[in-house]
Automatic annotation (TrEMBL):
It comes from the Bacteria. This is PAS domain S-box-containing protein/diguanylate cyclase (GGDEF)-like protein. CDD domains: EAL (cd01948), GGDEF (cd01949), PAS (cd00130). Pfam families: EAL, GGDEF, PAS_9. Transmembrane segments: none annotated. Residues 35-108 form the PAS domain. Residues 333-577 form the EAL domain. It comes from Raoultella ornithinolytica. Residues 110-162 form the PAC domain. The lineage of its organism: Bacteria, Pseudomonadati, Pseudomonadota, Gammaproteobacteria, Enterobacterales.
Length: 577
């Protein structure tokens, strides 16, 4: 068969033009409006995409300017060669190029990503589309192939994916990665027993206070490097935050378990020498065992936590196994839940508001409502202490509705004319009367929906993503904005942006930790800001505490900020209007 580029070029170009116009957001043009010559001119001069035609056997039949720039070959050098030349030797030997053509032939189109190779041997990460081209009677004429270099995009996604699963200070896996790993071990059912450990460094706060946070961070990095070298394939040690570490060890015998505990103690406890000082550390270790001490990971961690606190209070024995009598904590938990219910009845809860500012820091752009609890015996309690219990016990439902109505009433009374955001729990979103109750609150208070914003985190989508998307769409249709909170801390944050159009992205405060001194952290922040701009979604950076952080965010193109730099949260009457 001879080259088909002459007879089918118009057909090929019309396909390419449609795809290209769709990709760059242009209005589609009927191919009858263009001549074969203009088609040829258009395709041959496209630079953003490598576009070329393949014969039935994969022989390259045409070559455009984008292909030359992407792969380094001139049309004279490459036409007549097989397109498998762009694949690795391993892929060529395994028949990958032929399989891709076969899939395009079977389904009409192949689409995928992978490494492709240039004339000089260098590689790039490519997005590839292969379309089967047929004439009007259905006869296969060849294939249209489009390749685009998306290496930079992949690097951004890889960085964000890494941040979602690893602790930026120590490089150890984080909570998300630990849960995925252990749940995989449990589901695999390959081990009779699993030990779940909680490890805490005694008097770590004193080390920070006396030696400074730099030494504290260096200590965490030192012990983390030790455990990273120690663990085997079926073991994992993760950092949950601060000086809190967790570990998992599958085992069959007590000797295996004892050896692992000994190694853990060796990694964490002992004298650590630094350039300016030496620090002596003792680790308290608690552990529980699956399945005896719990059938799910949350229970096992909770029980190992109890054991760790017992070890912390024992001078002689710094390793403690969970025992059922440690469940005094459960009693306290139940009492706290009862107190939450009573607190709702007795109006013990109230709201503070934190300003959001333009990047210049001069203009107030909105406010975030923050819940506080004045307990009659325990004093002021912050949300991170009681919200998890409120969610577990479903008391978040009445408490959440109270917050929504209180925000509306306080904002109206105090003549707030800027947007006010409220954190919405995943439990609230799944409540069957949530939409009706929100409508009822808006009708009773006459609060303008355009000034209301709901903040949700990635955890809202874990249980029933389809249901939550449906609820959020109804909320948006009411005129309420939706913000994705804590962006970057979850494994699927980027996926959420693909699946739902949020009105705002809130970059998690952890991104700003040590941004002044860590170029890698700054590059991550730059990547997130770039991502938000690429999808035309506004972004606000949380946790801004210093002028230096503010300046860096301004330099990187961030437009809106929030944090203690502009004042602590306060009652609504003290806000700048």
């Amino acid at each position: 068969m001879g080259y088909i580029v002459i007879n089918t070029f118009s057909h090929f170009c019309s396909v390419i033009l449609s795809i290209h116009c769709y990709a760059v957001g242009l209005v589609y043009m009927d191919n009858r409006m263009l001549t074969d010559i203009s088609y040829r001119h258009f395709v041959e001069n496209v630079k953003d995409y490598a576009i070329y035609m393949l014969e039935l056997d994969g022989t390259i039949a045409s070559w455009n300017e984008g292909a030359r720039q992407a792969k380094g070959y001139t049309s004279e050098e490459i036409i007549g060669s097989n397109f498998s030349i762009f694949y690795s030797e391993g892929e060529q030997q395994s028949g990958e190029p032929a399989r891709n053509l076969a899939l395009a032939l079977k389904t009409g189109k192949f689409e995928g990503e992978g490494w492709r190779y240039r004339k000089d041997g260098s590689s790039f990460w490519a997005h590839v589309v292969i379309d089967a081209i047929r004439n009007d009677d259905g006869t296969l004429l060849g294939f249209a192939k489009i390749t685009r270099d998306i290496t930079e995009h992949k690097e951004v996604i890889d960085k964000l994916s890494w941040m979602a699963r690893y602790d930026s200070l120590t490089g150890l896996p984080n909570r998300v990665a630990f849960f995925a790993f252990v749940e995989g071990l449990i589901a695999g059912n390959n081990y009779p027993q699993l030990a779940i450990f909680t490890i805490d460094l005694d008097k770590f706060k004193e080390i920070n206070d006396v030696e400074g946070h730099l030494i504290g961070d260096l200590l965490l990095q030192r012990v983390s490097a030790n455990v990273a070298k120690m663990v085997k394939n079926d073991e994992l040690v993760a950092r949950f935050g601060g000086d809190e570490f967790v570990a998992v060890k599958p085992f069959e015998s007590a000797d295996e378990l004892d050896l692992f505990i000994e190694k853990l103690q060796g990694c964490f406890s002992g004298i650590h020498d630094f350039a300016t000082t030496s620090v002596s550390v003792i680790a308290s270790i608690g552990f529980s065992v699956f399945p005896r001490d719990g059938s799910d990971l949350n229970t096992l961690i909770s029980n190992s936590d109890l054991a760790m606190y017992r070890a912390k209070s024992d001078i002689d024995n710094k390793v403690c196994r969970y025992e059922p009598e440690m469940d005094e904590r459960t009693r306290k938990r139940n009492q706290m839940i009862s107190d939450i219910r009573q607190g709702i009845k007795e109006d013990q809860f109230y709201l503070h508001y934190q300003e959001k500012r333009s990047i210049s820091g001069k203009q107030v752009t909105g406010y975030e409502a923050l819940l506080r609890w004045q307990h009659p015996e325990l004093g002021l309690i912050y949300p991170d202490e009681f919200i998890p219990l409120a969610e577990e016990s479903a008391t978040i439902i009445p408490l959440g509705y109270w917050v929504l109505e209180q925000v509306c009433r306080e904002a109206l009374v105090n003549k707030i004319h800027k947007k006010v955001s409220v954190n919405i729990s995943p439990v609230q979103l799944r409540h069957r009367h949530f939409i009706d109750n929100v409508r009822g609150i808006l009708m009773r208070t006459c609060f303008p929906v355009s000034l209301f914003e709901f903040e949700v985190t990635e955890t809202a989508f874990i249980v029933d993503k389809k249901l939550v998307f449906n609820v959020l769409n109804q909320i948006k249709n009411m005129g309420i904005s939706i913000a994705l909170d804590d962006f970057g801390t979850g494994y699927s944050s980027i996926s959420m942006l693909r699946e739902f159009h949020f009105d705002l992205i809130k970059m998690d405060r952890s991104f700003l930790q040590n941004i002044e001194n860590d170029t890698e952290v700054r590059s991550f922040v730059r990547a997130v800001i770039s991502l938000s701009k690429s999808i035309n979604t506004p972004l606000i950076a949380e946790g801004v505490e210093t002028l230096e952080q503010l300046k860096i965010l301004e330099d990187e193109g961030c437009n809106e900020v929030q944090g203690f730099l502009f004042g602590k949260p306060t009652i609504i009457g003290q806000l700048k209007k």
